[in-house]
Design brief:
The structure holds 2 protein chains of 2 kinds.
Chain A (H helix, E strand, L loop, with lengths): L4 E10 L2 E11 L4 E6 L5 H8 L7 E6 L2 E2 L4 H6 L1 E4 L11 H11 L4 H14 L15 H14 L4 E5 L7 H16 L3 E5 L3 H7 L2 E6 L2 E6 L1 H7 L7 H21 L1
Parallel strand pairs in A: 3-8, 3-9, 6-7, 7-8
Antiparallel strand pairs in A: 1-2, 1-4, 4-5, 9-10
Chain B lengths: L2 H24 L4 H22 L1 H9 L7 H32 L3 H5 L5 H33 L8 H27 L1 H30 L5 H12 L6 H4 L7 H6 L3 H27 L2 H5 L17 H14 L2 H23 L7 H26 L4 H6 L4 H30 L4 H21 L8 H6 L5 H22 L3 H25 L6
Helix pairs in contact in B: 1-6, 2-6, 4-6, 4-7, 4-8, 6-7, 6-12, 7-8, 7-12, 8-15, 14-18, 15-16, 15-18, 16-18, 16-19, 16-21, 18-19, 19-21, 19-22, 21-22
The chains are: A alpha/beta, B mainly alpha.
Chain lengths: ~250, ~525
């Protein structure tokens, strides 16, 4: 079976700072994969390279077998990317925004129309459909951006901190939508600082530190690796980061 | 609260306002260049005038000006109207900022300082801001007046302060009303549009006699009718005549003591009423009305459109239609076209050649509009990440954005050509160069575009953050195409060929510079 996402030695350097260092991994379809890491660990850079927004210095990313570098349009057709602070068109209304996104992905209007309405209703945005996006709160904008990610029926969604700015009810709604999406055989890659969310939702977890993937696997596999049997994801995460820092210090010394 | 603490609060708040004003004023990169240039220019002019007007000064000093000539009052009235219009415009813009956008009123009103003190400071700070702008003209004018022996003209200062205070008071009340009706955000948009349009209307108003002279319109008849309204013995003489107290501001310019007193009383009364109204309105919660939004209407859930081309063009046009920058730019250009259209309809007279004017003016306007529209479509893209993550070729997307900017330009200029054809004038050279000018403008922008936040579009120009080299290229291109239009009309083939080469050179320079910079757009 073709992996939903495959990274081969993905690397990116900004000046002297190595943001992402030879990152390789494979995510099977139907998985919710969480990237964890401290600030500046390289999570967002990785996601932007996968989404084709940033050119990697080395390596490649494959979306369902299509290279994001060699056949970007084919790869992007099955992909949706939602940045942490989604920038939307301030002077458009929600339906107009969804129409534009559906058009970019060449989704026939007859198919997009009912789905757009369903998404807006599901995300409690239908009542504000006549308002310009500029009047929306951060949470409302985040929900609309999520609707935009879903409207073109991608098979892989990449989300950078998707729950930021959402109230408890909206966060729960989004989590449910993402879980249902993976249950339908689709794939979700997300980054989050809320470790509880990753612990409860993710089937696979990757921990990034200083641009390197220091550990990846299910929560159980990470527990074994960190000698934290029965520990929470928080303790596992901190232990693995600690180990990685110690290894890095030794390797720098040698 | 004691009078001392009120005075202290007043001083502190005014000091803070002054600091903010100073930072905003000196934020522009070109501020100090302007100060030095204006200072040197004014000093030079005054020295020359001092030397040149020696004879006149002696004559004016010996002939005491006991009674003002009627013409002097009418000139002062016209001046007062113009100043008031500009002061009102600026006051409304500033009021939107200080009352609603800056967002510090909640903090101030929750402090123990009286609401009236807070709004008095706001009113005074806006008045001083507006007054400071006019001082650029008033200071040299008053110095000149002293130099030529007319110290009465120092009355420009009380008159100016009175006008600014009244204009600011009225501006704040209008802003308050606008915000209550349409909300703060839309008020800002409409204020920006109003500003630009008023400026142009005033400029066109001054040029109106010239326009009228080129047509078959009888200007003298209009003048006679206006004079009959204020002539001695007419029913309106007491109200509109030169002796009327209605013109107290104009008389203040000539330092008439009664008029000065009237100016102080009237402007202070209006200012006090404004302060009282503002304090009351804010206590009653005007801010709440600013967050009110329009309720759903039927179009909001409209049927979605199909196809990449259609959705890109529709989205760009929606964004343009809702952009205050575009609306103001288009309104400006349309206002510029109106006199020409009027002259075409009137048939023209004398040596004025309508088709020559059209072959020069339409490429000029086409170029200017294209720059503004392409600027919004290309540089003002708000969701670059979305476009970059979409499965579409960048070139295809940019080309559609260019087209989205060009189609409205051609649509706006189409009526001019339709009129020319209808009236039987030469239209082909104008059409040819207009298409050339708009394409050229569009490509210059495409190759040299850099992202700009939409809400910053107006401020970019104010802060001097515009691309100077691109500005030169754009001006060069516009004038070259406009010149080509005139040359083609005059059937001067050598000049036309030279201008075609020049237009090509400007375009090549734009392309070369674009290659040097690389694409700065994030999509």
């Amino acid at each position: 079976m073709v992996a939903a996402l495959e990274l081969h030695n993905l690397s990116k350097q900004f000046g002297k700072h190595q943001a992402v260092n030879q990152l390789s991994l494979s995510v099977p379809p139907g998985t919710l994969y969480a990237f964890l890491g401290a600030n500046g660990a390289g999570k967002t850079t990785t996601l932007r390279m996968i989404a084709g927004l940033l050119q990697p210095d080395k390596g490649d990313a494959f979306i369902f077998g299509s290279s994001i570098l060699r056949s970007p349009q084919q790869a992007k057709q099955r992909l949706a990317y939602l940045p942490e602070d989604a920038l939307l068109y301030s002077k458009l209304r929600p339906m107009e925004y969804l129409e534009f996104v559906a058009g970019l992905w060449n989704i026939p209007a007859a198919r997009a129309q009912p789905y757009a309405q369903q998404l807006l209703e599901q995300l409690n945005l239908w009542t504000v459909r006549a308002d310009y996006i500029e009047t929306f709160s951060r949470g409302m904008r985040q929900k609309l951006a999520l609707a935009g990610a879903f409207i073109h029926e991608p098979q892989l969604i990449i989300l950078d901190e998707p729950l930021g700015g959402l109230d408890a009810a909206a966060a729960r709604l989004v989590k449910t939508m993402l879980l249902e999406f993976t249950e339908q055989g689709n794939t979700v890659i997300l980054t989050t600082h809320v470790l509880d969310v990753a612990e409860r939702m993710a089937q696979q977890i990757g921990i990034l530190n200083r641009g390197r993937l220091v550990a990846a696997g299910t929560l159980e596999e990470l527990r074994v690796r960190s000698d934290q049997s029965g520990g929470t994801l928080e303790s596992v995460f901190l232990e693995l980061i600690d180990q990685s820092d110690r290894d890095q210090t030794v390797s720098d010394f040698l | 609260m004691s009078i001392h603490s009120v005075a202290r609060s007043f001083r502190r708040l005014l000091g803070n306002e002054f600091r903010l004003w100073w930072r905003k004023t000196t934020e522009s990169k070109r501020f100090w260049i302007w100060v030095v240039m204006v200072g040197l220019g004014v000093s030079g002019c005054l020295t020359l005038l001092w030397l040149a007007l020696d004879a006149l000064r002696t004559e004016m000093a010996s002939a005491a000006l006991t009674e003002l000539p009627e013409a002097a009052i009418w000139i002062a009235i016209a001046l007062c109207f113009t100043i008031f219009l500009f002061a009102f415009n600026q006051a409304v813009s500033e009021s939107v900022v200080v009352l609603f956008e800056r967002g510090d009123l909640d903090l101030l009103l929750s402090s123990p300082i009286s609401g009236r003190v807070i709004f008095a400071v706001r009113l005074l700070s806006v008045t001083l801001t507006v007054f400071a702008g006019f001082c650029l003209f008033a200071v040299p004018a008053s110095l000149l007046a002293i130099l030529i022996g007319l110290p009465q003209l120092l009355g420009i200062y009380p008159a100016l302060i009175g006008i600014c205070l009244m204009a600011t008071s009225l501006g704040m009340l209008v802003t308050l009303g606008l915000v209550r009706i349409i909300g703060a955000r839309r008020s800002r948009t409409w204020v920006q549009i109003l500003n630009l349009v008023t400026t142009l209307v005033v400029l066109l108003g001054f040029q109106l006699p010239n326009f009228l002279q080129t047509s078959r319109f009888d200007l003298s008849e209009l003048q006679q009718r206006a004079q009959s309204w204020v002539a001695p013995g007419s029913p309106l003489e007491n109200i509109l005549g030169v002796e009327s107290q209605l013109w107290f501001l104009a008389r203040t310019i000539w330092l008439d003591p009664t008029a000065v007193l009237l100016t102080v009383v009237v402007s202070s009364a209006i200012a006090l009423f404004t302060i009282y109204t503002l304090a009351q309105s804010f206590v009653q919660g005007t801010q709440q009305s600013t967050t009110r939004t329009r309720r759903a209407h039927t179009r909001a859930g409209a049927i979605l459109k199909d196809g990449f081309n259609r959705v890109v063009l529709t989205k760009e046009w929606r964004m343009m239609r809702r952009s205050p920058y575009i609306i103001s730019q288009a309104a400006l250009q349309v206002l510029l076209v109106l006199p020409l259209t009027w002259v075409v309809l009137q048939g023209g007279s004398g040596s004025f050649s309508i088709d020559r004017a059209a072959s020069f003016a339409t490429p000029f306007l086409g170029g200017q509009l294209t720059y503004a529209f392409t600027y919004v479509c290309l540089s003002g893209e708000e969701a670059a990440d979305l476009l970059k993550s979409a499965p579409v070729a960048v070139g295809a997307l940019r080309w559609r954005k260019q087209l989205a900017a060009l189609i409205p330009v051609w649509t706006l200029l189409f009526p001019v050509f339709a009129l020319l054809i209808w009236q039987g004038y030469t239209w082909l050279p104008g059409l040819f160069v207009t298409i050339g000018a708009s394409f050229s403008a569009s490509f210059l922008r495409l190759w040299n575009s850099r992202p700009v936040a939409r809400k910053e579009m107006f401020r970019q120009r104010q802060l001097g953050k515009t691309d100077l080299f691109l500005g030169l290229l754009e001006s060069g291109s516009t004038w070259t195409w406009a010149g080509l239009g005139a040359a083609l009309y005059a059937e001067s083939s050598s000049l036309s060929l030279g201008l075609v080469c020049l237009a090509g050179l400007v375009l090549s320079l734009g392309y070369w510079r674009g290659r040097q910079l690389g694409s700065l757009l994030h999509y």
